[in-house]
Specification:
The protein is mostly helical and 220 residues long. It has helices at residues 2-12, 23-32, 38-51, 55-60, 63-69, 76-94, 107-115, 122-132, 142-151, 160-167, 173-189, 210-216. The relative contact order is 0.13.
């Protein structure tokens, strides 16, 4: 894994750490990021915050108003009720829509709490742990899932959800954040879902799938 990371950094450069956001902000932003681009996620989040003054206002608004505010992020009619359900659940448990007390918990307890919220899975929980709280989690998004599967780090049929539990203990804690970022860049630019650029891949010699993809004409 360290060798792969070094190769990816040599090819793509060092990734820039994201600016940490409050836990609830990161949680909502991660829901908005599902099945859309970073640009659209940022637009949807900015629109949501501009439309509503506080998270309580989002929780209590008509769902159609929330969907309208986040339309730029896609799947607004699915994401809007999901976001409201999460915010209402937090308020019901905490008495306010704030999760700063999670900073006092260990990683496993934070992960369990977040996954117990409606519609929150391992990827969303790992993103909050990593990007908001600075913990050593390892989010597996669609790019990380695809690249690690092709590398042979997980089985071909391993789901993204199962990959979190399988990969996290195997990735050295200090490598989880930077490796996650490096794999995303690689998945977006080289190891794409269709016609990956295997001939330009810096980790081709580590890859289980590359030779097969090239031989079958499914890569270039």
């Amino acid at each position: 894994m360290r060798a792969v990371y070094r190769r990816l950094v040599a090819q793509h450069g060092e990734g820039k750490p994201r600016q940490p956001q409050p836990i609830v902000d990161e949680l909502v932003g991660t829901v908005l990021s599902q099945h859309t681009s970073d640009v659209n996620t940022e637009r949807a989040f900015a629109s949501l915050r501009a439309r509503f003054g506080a998270w309580d206002d989002v929780a209590d608004a008509p769902v159609d108003d929330v969907a309208d505010a986040i339309r730029a992020g896609g799947l607004a009619r699915i994401k809007a009720p999901r976001i409201q359900a999460i915010l209402r659940e937090i308020r019901g448990r905490e008495g306010t829509i704030d999760l700063s007390r999670l900073d006092e918990l260990d990683d496993a307890d934070v992960d369990a709490y977040l996954r117990s919220l409606p519609g929150v899975g391992p990827k969303t929980a790992a993103c909050v742990l990593t990007f908001s709280m600075g913990r050593a989690a390892f989010p597996v998004d669609t790019h990380v899932h695809r690249v690690t599967r092709r590398l042979g780090w997980i089985g071909e049929r391993t789901s993204a959800e199962a990959a979190h539990d399988e990969l996290t203990p195997r990735v050295p804690p200090e490598l989880r954040y930077p490796l996650h970022m490096a794999l995303i860049v690689h998945g977006r630019t080289i190891c794409t879902a269709r016609m990956p650029k295997c001939s330009a891949c810096s980790v081709f010699d580590f890859c289980d799938a590359g030779p097969r993809l090239l031989a079958s004409g499914d890569a270039r």
